[in-house]
Amino acid sequence: MHLHKYEKIWLIFGIGSLILFLVVLGVGAFYKGTHPPSHLATIDPQNVQAHESFMDENLGLRQVGEDQYLVSVIASAFNYNLGTDEDGKAIRTVRIPVDSTVVFQVTTTDVIHGFQLAGTNVNMMVEPGYISSLETTFKKPGTYTLLCNEYCGTGHHIMAATVEVYQP
Amino acid sequence: MSKSSLQMKKKQAPKEEEQPELKGTFIAVMGLGLFILISWFIVYFIFVAR
Amino acid sequence: MITNKTGMNKHDSSLVMAHMWVAFISLFIGGLMGLLQTLVRSGTLTLPFGIGYYQILTVHGVILALVLTTFFIIGFQFALMSKTVGMTDKQRDSAWFGFWIMLFGTVTTAVTILLGKASVLYTFYAPLKAYPTFYIGLALVVVGSWIGCFTNFRQLYVWKKKNKGEKSPLLAFMVVINMLLWFIATLGVAATVLIQFIPWSLGMVDTINVLVSRTLFWYFGHPLVYFWLLPAYMAWYAIIPKIIGGKIFSDSLARLSFVLFLMFSIPVGFHHQLTEPGIDATWKFIQVVLTFMVIIPSLLTAFSMFATFEITGRSKGYTGLFGWLKGLPWKDVRFFAPMVGMLAFIPAGTGGIINASNQMNQVVHNTIWVTGHFHLTVGTTVILTFFGISYWLIPVLTGRRLTKKINTLGMIQTVVWAFGMLIMSGSMHIAGLLGAPRRSSYSTYGGSEQATEWIGYQLAQAIGGSILFIGIILMVYIFLYMIYAAPKGEEEFPISEVSENAEPTPKFLENWKLWIGITVALILFAYTIPFIDIIQHSPPGSPGFDMLIRH
Prior knowledge:
The structure holds three protein chains of three kinds. By secondary structure, chain A is an alpha+beta fold. Chain A is 16% helix and 35% strand. Chain A has one helix at residues 5-31, and strands at 60-65, 68-76, 79-81, 93-97, 101-108, 113-117, 123-126, 132-137, 142-147, 160-166. Chain A is elongated. The N and C termini of chain A lie far apart (65 Å). By secondary structure, chain B is mainly alpha-helical. Chain B has a domain at 22-50. Helix content of chain B is 74%, strand content 0%. Chain B is rod-shaped, with a radius of gyration of 18 Å. Chain C is mainly alpha-helical. Chain C has a single domain, classed as Cytochrome C Oxidase, Chain A (Up-down Bundle), CATH 1.20.210. The B-C interface holds B 1, 3-4, 7, 18, 20-25, 27-29, 32, 35-36, 39-40, 43-44, 46-47, 50 and C 299, 302-303, 306-307, 309-311, 314-315, 317, 319, 321-322, 324-325, 346-347, 349-351, 353-354, 357, 359-360, 362-364, 433, 500-501.
């Protein structure tokens, strides 16, 4: 098949750009470890609290090392369970110091939910039977809205919480 | 078609004289390519900055 | 069976027209739902009579993305096949049979949604559970469309037998590629609906494997968007050149790009599941690479389109670097509407590349950016091309003429559409980058500061949506006018010839066994190992949740 000279140049440029994108993405994913969230661990969706991470006392924010935090969350229609405070009230805001490493691990007891921290790269699907997990470092202090971004029923749009990143 | 190939003749080697004049097309698609590159890198840098 | 140069056989016309009626009625209903959504979401309207936001969102998605597209495409393709390779009485009977099954399925699904028993959106992700008739209706739409597939295959087969050694007409070749793509893709959604959803919703089994159902859905979900796009490409490659007074730039490049679409649009479904647990990151990346392969035929198409325009403009005596643009019939809506659609594909396609870019998907996944993206692709590029087709196809079918007045009204319709979409889709893209989610009713997210920032963009979406609804009213008026009021006469069925400069089409491009073989091999490569992995490491299944969708 015969190609026009300009078409050849265009295809080389176009395909070259696609290769450039893939190399940038590939280096990021495989070398720097910025794969999109692809955690493979499974869990019984009808008995998530049998799993250590999702026992009542382990929900919400836990410090696991210097500048290292773990946030365990049970999503269900239409709520994120972040544990309770000293008074036994449900926690609605998680406070994390800036520049610390945070791992979010989330599962659901019912349908599919989204787990998105608006304005950050924390964005993953939460599916029954799986533990979704993502590690991040918050570079900017601020108040971020945690919200469900996958339709989960009539109250989907009220499913939200807050993450506050503060300067210690 | 003959008209455009006549124009081509002046600048190009004789074996390419059958190729139609497609300068405008070339610039248009390269502009399109540039648009794709710029847009992609804008979102890429948003990803890196967050 | 092939009649004169302009009109079409009367029986074939009624068949195509029946499909068009369903498509345009769907356009009106779906568009109205879209308008209501943007009004609710901007906080300007509360729905009366206990109608739910997610109920109208389900109607909007099902009726526009699944019903309008499928009926328009199958009807348009029957028109192309009837025109290029002909249609026997038997083939027409089977086409009608497929039509009635699809229509029956559509009505079954629609009634279930309207009764409030299937507010699960058009992606119907398990374990949200709709009433069984929702899934049964969808299955019937797919089965009906398969009858359309096999009718088209048969049409080309019969033509080939009669015209031994000749290459098939370009448009017939393209239709068969699109229907092959559709058939192979719908096997996935048929499998999940028939084997998983229907028994589960009927209570025959207690649980469903969620990740398997999603993987099968997205095996179908991406080729689905190419099933929408390819008929637009058919018009661009093989009809627009005729309308602008030019010729097809290259028959072989057109066929090559369709073959590439067949091969690479299916083994790429994981790029819709990039942020999901349970799928290995390496296999996600492999499918991202394959996704990037499917961009190449669109790069080819971009060049072919501009080249057709430039050669045509120059052949009319216009010179200079961009002087040939003046040689294009900007005042002919049959060209203008698809041309605006093509231009919209520049940001639309770019957005698509960004969406599929592996980890970058975390920036945009399930934000309203995605909604903005597909309102450019299917909602502008594809639909404006379909409108562009309608301006000549409906008159051909009804034996009337496209009048000057309707041509002008069509131009206005196109501008209204482009303007409304610019506002709506533009604000969706920006709000999405800020983090605003898609598929959500009006919410302040507990008075969050970020959500306050989004409201302005949601208002802009309502303004854009209202302008688009005006566009829909205009289009429905034009549709009805072309059927009932336009003067009788003959309208041209524009089919382009190949440029005399183009090289002869090589024989291998019609080696169906080869293309289907490669397609199947690529699918097996991309899916076998990760799919076995998903099944082997399956968690306990999920029971259904139908109470969550009641309002």
